[in-house]
Amino acid sequence: MAASFVARGARNVIIKLGDKGCLLRTEDGVIEHVAAPVVSAVDTTGAGDAFVAGFTAGLVHGWNASRCAHLAVTVGAMCVTAIGASGGVRSFAETVQVLERGGLM
């Protein structure tokens, strides 16, 4: 699927894989599977939007695509731990702490 998007002009492709994380294909051809933290999902409402918001927040902070993807799967995983589209989402600083310690506790 990623190759199909690249053939049509996309430089970077990210494919969400639900609880398995995502697949990232960067413009230099590197393919990376970014695993999602293991969580007990309560409600998946908003998980996709949270994922996109996490990736976008990383871009806004000047991060490379790989680090953005890691942030995205972390935000998505945090989102599903509470009921509703945003109950599990935390501040950027809190989320980065979760990311840097290697996942949710």
Notes on the protein architecture:
Helix 2 packs antiparallel against helix 3 (65-79) and helix 3 crosses helix 4 (92-100). A 3-stranded antiparallel beta sheet has the order 1-2-3. It is an alpha+beta fold and 105 residues long. The model has no long low-confidence stretch (mean pLDDT 94). The chain has a single domain, classed as Ribokinase (UDP-N-acetylmuramoyl-L-alanine:D-glutamate ligase). Helix content is 42%, strand content 11%. The chain contains 4 helices and 3 strands; from the N terminus they run αβββααα.
Write the layout of secondary structure elements.
Layout: H1 2-7, E1 13-16, E2 22-25, E3 31-34, H2 47-60, H3 65-79, H4 92-100
Antiparallel strand pairs: 1-2, 2-3
Helix pairs in contact: 2-3, 3-4
* Largest sheet, spatial ordering of strands: 1-2-3
CATH fold category name: UDP-N-acetylmuramoyl-L-alanine:D-glutamate ligase
Q: Which stretches are poorly predicted, pLDDT < 50 over at least 5 residues?
A: none
Query: CATH H-level name... which superfamily?
Result: Ribokinase
Q: Structural class, from helix and strand content?
A: alpha+beta
Name given to the CATH architecture = 3-Layer(aba) Sandwich
